Amino acid sequence: LDIITRFGDASGLHLNISKCTVTPIRCDHINLHEVLHAFGGQIVAFPIRYLGLPISLGRARLVHFQFILDRIRARLAGWKGKLMHIAGRRVL
């Protein structure tokens, strides 16, 4: 954590440890709780969201992105009903 503190002092970008998470990849042979004891964040497993988008191990599947598609469909339904000409609605 010393290097993170130094980085924050130099750059002005500080970590909010209460919002931080650690997602281990291929760390089966070490005791993560022991290593991360001083960290204070929490350990989470895949799939996770980063900047609102899903990240998973392996190939991305439709189920990981379904919430985005649902949001887009809901917004398009309201938008096309209000603003589009009837010919444009048929095309869409």
From TrEMBL:
PANTHER family: OS01G0158850 PROTEIN (PTHR33116:SF87), REVERSE TRANSCRIPTASE ZINC-BINDING DOMAIN-CONTAINING PROTEIN-RELATED-RELATED (PTHR33116). This is Reverse transcriptase domain-containing protein. It comes from Aegilops tauschii subsp. strangulata (Goatgrass).
